[in-house]
Amino acid sequence: MAFLSLLFLFNLLSVAHSQTPQPPRGVLIDCGATVSSVVEGRQWLPDAGFVFAGTPKNLTTANLVPILSTVRSFPLQGNIYRKFCYVVPVFRTGKYLIRTTYFYGGINGKDSPPVFDQIVDGTFWSVVNTTEDYGQGMSSYYEGVFVAQGKTMSVCVAANSYTDSDPFISALEFVLLGDSLYNSTDFSKYGLSLVARHSFGYNGPIIRYPDDLFDRYWEPFGEHNPTIAGVRNVSVSGFWNLPPLKIFQTELTTTLPGPMELHWPLASLPNSSYYIALYFADDHDTSLGSSMMFNISINDVIYYHDLSVTPAGVVVFAKQWPLSGLTKITLAPAAGLNIGPLINAGEVFDLLLLGGRTLTRDVIALERVKNGFQNPPIDWNGDPCLPRQYSWTGVMCSEGPRIRVVALNLTSMGLSGSLSRNIANLTALTGIWLGNNNLSGSIPDLSPLKRLEILHLEDNRLSGEIPPSLGNIESLRELFLKNNNLTGQVPNNLIGKPGLNLMISPGNQFLSPPPS
Questions:
Q1: What is the DSSP string of 51-97?
Q2: Is the pLDDT at 107 greater than 50, yes or no?
Q3: Would you say 493 and 468 are in contact if contact means Cβ atoms under 8 Å apart?
Q4: Which of 36, 155, 406, 442 has its CA 20 to 30 A from that of 358?
Q5: Whole-Å CA distances, 459 to 143, 483, 486
């Protein structure tokens, strides 16, 4: 069911517009850069502290803005459906504008850039296809609004079945938004993915910070519709979505009193539900009559009836409106009104159903297991289980709403380091396969793993004694420990344990002969 609301401007304490506002709070990451930089008074950080895979590269394209002059690329070979993630510290429950920027610059040696996926936490965000923009010499950006569920958020790029060269990224931005922005959205269930944001009747450069307090991009839209633009001196003090005042200085309107049709967004849209916000403000003389009033239809379906537009301004928004294909917005003056309608700006977001999250304690435990390895799999960042097709290498997860890690299979992965005791915190594990690696140290106490059925640690360099607690795991039916450096006694509760397939020799140095 579509939900439609009308919000009038409310008065706020005025701020002197001659003063430059404080830069938006957040983290700006210059991907592939090795040193920090300051661009237009805002600091960009090198990306090494946020990502642990990929290769930084310098572009040779002339006259690039600094942020586009480097990229980080990620290897395609052997990594189909593996994700490479930036992990960024955030404020829990903070609402963030996340923007990714891509400029190919020929880094892969092919004429066209690769097409690949981008992911936020456990949610598939979008396909990244920069081919058309790059063909016109432009960068591409993607923008979304998401609420942080924890103390970090991850943004990942990932090769899919039609990626033909290494995925890459140029810049990543996290901007903390005010609580009132887009607050009709249930961010516990949904994210917003920007489809279009335009200032109508405007032909200048993109409107952004400092005009927009949160550095949102308002693109010009003055050449695509057979209407005229007029400069208006409208007094606007603030909306819940806090649009910049500059978008109300121009408008699309008509010289005739009849309906006006606006074909926007320009692209054909997939069948989905969308958040739509349309902005209006009028400064015509209302002393001789009522305010401007008109009806709004989208694809010939009434969107709002008898909208009254005054100098105070108004925004009409729908938090879930179905769209598919091309979109036509019709603004029809009310009966008896002899002036044409107008529109100043608009935003459209695709409503993304969030993909969920792996249980937090499992994520923490896996991160600590990862820290015990000297060379963990390169895709062990971001959400371990989600999206499903992009789960971590060797990690198998449960179905259903409560996502748990149920098995680890890292056989013959060339792992070195030690097996962290925190693996015992993955209490849903039924199987662990870590055979044929170079793991050293002792076998930790795994008795909390009450569901564990299979444990393969053979062909490593593990030392110390076999923990007697292994014999107390009632579900254990297969235990392979051969070809390590284990010593001491074989626990009695393992010898002759009913239903247990036990393989502990050759290759260990027990004090008494193991069972035959």
A1: --SSEEEE---TT--GGGSEEEE---TT-TT-EEEEEEE--TT-EEE
A2: yes
A3: yes
A4: 442
A5: 48, 5, 11
Last residue within a domain, chosen from 145, 177, 209: 177
CA 457 to chain centroid, in Å, comes to: 36
- Whether the CB-CB separation of 481 and 466 falls below 8 Å is answered with yes
Structure-token pair, residue 21: 């506002």
Distance CA 447, CA 461 (A): 22
Query: Which pLDDT band, with edges at 50, 70 and 90, does 393 fall under?
Result: very high
For the segment 428-455, the average pLDDT, to the nearest whole number, is 97
Q: What are phi and psi of 65, to 5 degrees?
A: -65, 150
Tally of CB atoms within 10 A around 301: 11
Look at the chain and report how many structural domains it folds into. 3
Q: What are phi and psi of 299, to 5 degrees?
A: 50, 45
Q: Are 359 and 403 spatial neighbours (Cβ–Cβ below 8 Å)? A: yes
Q: What average pLDDT does range 223-231 have in this prediction?
A: 51
pLDDT of residue 1: 31
Cα angle 474, 476, 480; round to 5: 150
Tokens of residue 242, six digits: 């806090």
* DSSP classification of residue 184: T
| Shared-domain flag, residues 152 and 210 | no
Based on the fold, state whether residues 338 and 433 are members of the same structural domain. Answer: no
* 370-374: Cβ within 8 A, 24+ apart: 371/420, 372/417, 372/418, 372/419, 372/420, 372/422, 373/415, 373/416, 373/417, 373/418, 374/415, 374/416, 374/417
Answer whether residue 102 shows pLDDT above 70: yes
Number of Cα atoms under 13 Å in the Cβ half of residue 140 = 21
Domain residue limits at 504: 360-510
